Structure formats: structure tokens, C-alpha cells
Fold:
Amino acid sequence: AQSVTQPDIHITVSEGASLELRCNYSYGATPYLFWYVQSPGQGLQLLLKYFSGDTLVQGIKGFEAEFKRSQSSFNLRKPSVHWSDAAEYFCAVGLLSGGYNKLIFGAGTRLAVHP
Amino acid sequence: DSGVTQTPKHLITATGQRVTLRCSPRSGDLSVYWYQQSLDQGLQFLIQYYNGEERAKGNILERFSAQQFPDLHSELNLSSLELGDSALYFCASSRASRANEKLFFGSGTQLSVL
Structure:
């Protein structure tokens, strides 16, 4: 069955430090991959997405993600974290199932940023 | 602002009751999705409508139902409410219904069942 795993439930980093949030997926073919961010009290906002082509994709707010087929991973990175990046981050897989498109989310990683 | 409007923002009700959550998608979006977010289950896909028709069903209970109206707004009806139904319910919309669609999320309705 298709699934998305975010191994880290909670991560704390210092402001200015680099960040990597892990995401692994289970799917037979190359899926459509997304990272969404949820700020407190808000809905989810798309950071970036990967469909095909260049495996390193750039998103909003200085985030990037790299698709690695051999590792079934799509990790999110940012070179220097800002306090405003504190939020919950969701990796998601978009795929066709039973003729319909579905978006499956991981459990999320909550990011805390220390000053 | 995503352009997706959900009402009400907060809802407090008692077990056994019925509530209706409302969603207005972004202008021009034909697809509406409903998600339930809880601490123990995470973000769960409930149901999707496209241009008034049901397109996909996820982990939606039989006590729950939804519809999309001709003006494309959608309602999620939750009946015979139980304590475990307390959660944040999100609506999202997209232009079409492809697997690579970007979804725009509303800020959710926080449901508390007491």
C-alpha cells in the first residue's frame, strides 16, 4: 500500500542553523511529491512540489527538496532557519488510485526554532 | 490568504448532535477536498468532489456525508457525533482533479464534541 513516512515527529534547531526534514514514500512508480507547511492556527500552504525532471526543486521561503529514487526519499532542506519557520511540515504523495487521484500526507514534523 | 473560506472557525457541540461545516473554494476551482486532522490520526483524507460530483472517498465514516452545490461550495455533515470526532476539519480546493494538483487549504473548522 502507498504510504508516506516522516520519521521525525519533532525537531528543534537554533535560528541560523541548517535544517533537513526527512520524508520517505512507498509507491511502485514515481509519485508526485509535495511539501506543505502549517503555521499555528492556519491551513496548509504548499512549499514545493516534484513531478519529474531536475531532482532538486526550489520552493518558497528559501526551502528546497531533493528527490532520490534509490532511497525513496524527498527530504526538505533549508540552509539557514528563521524563527518564522517554526511550524508543522507535511510531506505528501499525489497518486492515482482506483482511477481517482489521492493526496496522502505523512504524519508531519513539528519544527521548533530557538533564538 | 489561500482564497478558501471555511465557516465556522470553531464549533462546540455535544455527543449525539449533528453539525454542518461549510467551505467556499477559491474562485475558479472545481475540486473540493475535505480532510480531518487529529492528534492521533494525523491528516486524513475524507472525500473529494469535482464539479458537483463525488470523485474519491477516503476514511470517511458512514455518519459523515458531504455534497458540493452548483455554485461549487461544499458542506460536510457530521451526525451522531462522538467524542472522537473532535478534530480540525480542513477544506481544500484545486483547479481540476489531477494527482499533481496544488491544493489550497482553508484555515479549518475546529470541532469540539463534549
